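One-letter codes give the sequence; each number marks local geometry. A record appears below:


***
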Amino acid sequence: MIVKNTLALMVAVGILAGSAYQHANAKEVGKSSANRAYQIYLLKGLADVFSSGMDFLRAKLQARGIVSEVRSHAAVESLAQAAIARWRSGSHGPIIIIGHSLGADAAIVMAQRLGSAQVPVALLVTFGPVDSAPVPANVRHAVNYFQSNSVWHGRITAGAGFQGVLENVDLAQARGITHFNIEKVAQLHNATVTKVLAVISTHTKATAQQSSRESPEGVSATNQSKQ
């Protein structure tokens, strides 16, 4: 009860600060992802003011040539529908969902929504989720960074039919890390960027191999396009 009341109070304090951010970003859902095969969503937590680590992570991905979208946890339903629509339109690149705090909870919900639509999720990364939740069967790899000694210590569990890789990394003994900075830790960012790059690299190589197999023997895809 104390935890829920504390969270409710924080929501009341932060709602005005976050409302403008949510409104601005809602208009942009789906626009910036239109021209790439993969989809990467970074979901912020309460009022979008306590999860600046998602912005830092986006910058680090951008520096490696990877485009991602930072969104509000409150936009999870519209984001899920946009991702599903894009998949059904034929864009079958990997989907990666990352979130912090309430954004971590929303990331799991988004994965569940995609699972209900038979859309796979290549990578799910959660930083300090508020509640524990099952990871659906459509997720290939899920990583949860949490602190068992925190008020907010959500864990992820294997949901029905889940056969992927599931990791709960307990940072309870990590000095200086709290619920409010767990998504800003450089080592965790580095590990996440490495996982994202591996997912995209694997997809890129698989796509190239498939294109090569589909091309007539001795004729490259480039040459075909010129004919």
